[in-house]
Every structure is written in structure tokens, then in C-alpha cells.
From TrEMBL:
Lineage: Bacteria, Pseudomonadati, Thermodesulfobacteriota, Syntrophia, Syntrophales
Name recorded for this polypeptide: 2-C-methyl-D-erythritol 4-phosphate cytidylyltransferase
EC number per UniProt: 2.7.7.60
GO MF annotation terms: 2-C-methyl-D-erythritol 4-phosphate cytidylyltransferase activity
Site (Transition state stabilizer): 7
Species of the source: Syntrophus gentianae
Pathway field: Isoprenoid biosynthesis; isopentenyl diphosphate biosynthesis via DXP pathway; isopentenyl diphosphate from 1-deoxy-D-xylulose 5-phosphate: step 2/6
Biological process according to GO: isopentenyl diphosphate biosynthetic process, methylerythritol 4-phosphate pathway
Record keywords: Isoprene biosynthesis, Nucleotidyltransferase, Transferase
Keyword Transcription: no
HAMAP family: IspD (MF_00108)
Catalysis: reaction(s): 2-C-methyl-D-erythritol 4-phosphate + CTP + H(+) = 4-CDP-2-C-methyl-D-erythritol + diphosphate
Length: 226
């Protein structure tokens, strides 16, 4: 991100990226509570500068993460009670999650056990090994880009994490752990605007999306009646 500050705390339209994401979840009627997993050294900062000032009352606990993403989700899962039916895992730097997207993914998790938001690949995808030469062109008709939210019946995700620990298996997302368990994961159509902010260009694009959204709200609220 070419910044001394972590990407989730960079300001976007007056608020940290993480706050934009959390406000979406805070307003969702589908989310009962939020367990926020952050780097251990950020616990105090997030509590005092994120959760309290922005009145994020659905945050039930702020938990120290681990070395890798998988370790952090495992720490969060350990804090979830048996009364929870569905766990939704979402990246803090995906601030454009929508209620409709959450509804589709959670509904699919209830029906199928595990579901992931994603979008079809639109570019031609080449496989390039270490020598830098193209080895083959992949069929993009069957390729999707996985996003979050990813939703799972709690027992399935906990079982997948136990299995991954037993096998010393490391996946790049939670769905890959469930796949390793042998449980099918349903792909649900996400949104191309549901970007993960990881580069300076992503931040520019996200700010453009916010301006567009605010323009739509302004027009809808100030349009005179005839």
C-alpha cells in the first residue's frame, strides 16, 4: 500500500477503511454480533479509536489474531458459542459488502452448509511457471474469483479447522479448508464492486465508488416531488 499505516486504518472519505466495512455489518439485519480479529498490538487502538467512537455496538469482542490469516480465524472461532448457527467470515478491507450479498451467502450456507461469494473471471488466464513462459491457457468459463463474505454452518467450519490442524494443512481462505474436509462449497454470485483494498489503485477506485454511492443518496433524498 506504500504507507506506514496498515491498509485497514487508512482513511477513505473521512473514515478508516475498516470502519466503512464494520458499518455495513452493523446496519445489516442479518448480522447478530461481530467478533473482530486484529493484530495483538492493535487491540487497544481498535477498541478506543474504532469501536467506541463509531458506536459499533454489534462488536461483542475484539480478539488478538495470529501470524497468518488462518490462525486469526481460528482464534475467532474459539470465541463463538454453541448458540451460533452460521458463521460469516469477512475481510476488513472489503467495505462494499451489501445486504443482498450477505442474504444470498447466508441463505446458501443454511441450505448447503458452506457458501462463498465470488465473481466469474473476465480476463484470459495464463499459467506461468517459474521460468516465465506460458505453459497453458486456462478455460475461464469455469474460473471464479473468490471473495468474502464466506458463510458456513458453525459445526462444519469448526470441523474443517480441526482437520486442517491435524493434517498441517494451510489454505488461502476458509472455503479451501472446508474443501479439504471433503465438504462441497457452493459458489454464490458476488459483485465486481466488492473489492479488497490492497493497493493504492484499489483505494482510488474505492473512493470513486463511495462518491458514486453518496451522489445516488443525495439525488434520491433531494429530488422534488411533482
Amino acid at each position: 500500500m506504500q504507507s506506514p499505516n496498515p491498509k485497514q486504518y487508512l482513511f477513505m472519505n473521512g473514515k478508516p477503511v475498516l470502519v466503512h466495512t464494520l458499518l455495513r455489518l452493523q446496519k445489516s439485519s442479518l448480522i447478530d454480533e461481530i467478533l473482530l480479529v486484529v493484530p495483538e498490538g492493535d487491540l487497544f487502538f481498535v477498541r478506543e479509536s474504532i469501536a467506541k467512537p463509531y458506536r459499533l455496538t454489534k462488536i461483542q469482542n475484539i480478539i488478538a489474531g495470529g501470524k497468518e490469516r488462518q490462525d486469526s480465524v481460528r482464534n475467532g472461532l474459539a470465541e463463538i458459542g454453541d448458540q451460533c448457527d452460521v458463521v460469516v467470515v469477512h475481510d476488513g478491507v472489503r467495505p462494499f459488502v451489501t445486504e443482498e450479498m450477505l442474504s444470498r451467502v447466508i441463505g446458501a450456507a443454511l441450505q448447503f452448509g458452506a457458501a462463498v461469494a465470488g465473481v466469474p473471471v473476465t480476463d484470459t488466464v495464463k499459467e506461468v511457471p517459474g521460468d516465465g513462459y506460458i505453459s497453458r491457457t486456462l478455460n475461464r468459463e469455469t474460473l471464479w474469483l473468490a471473495q468474502t463474505p464466506q458463510a458456513f454452518q458453525r459445526r462444519i467450519l469448526q470441523k474443517a479447522y480441526r482437520k486442517a490442524a491435524e493434517d498441517d494443512f494451510h489454505g488461502t481462505d476458509d472455503a479451501s479448508l472446508v474443501e479439504h474436509l471433503g465438504t462441497p462449497v457452493k459458489m454464490i454470485r458476488g459483485d465486481y464492486r466488492n473489492i479488497k483494498i490492497t493497493t493504492p489503485d484499489d483505494l482510488v477506485l474505492a473512493e470513486a465508488f463511495l462518491r458514486e454511492d453518496e451522489g445516488e443518496r443525495f439525488l434520491s433524498s433531494s429530488c422534488p416531488e411533482y
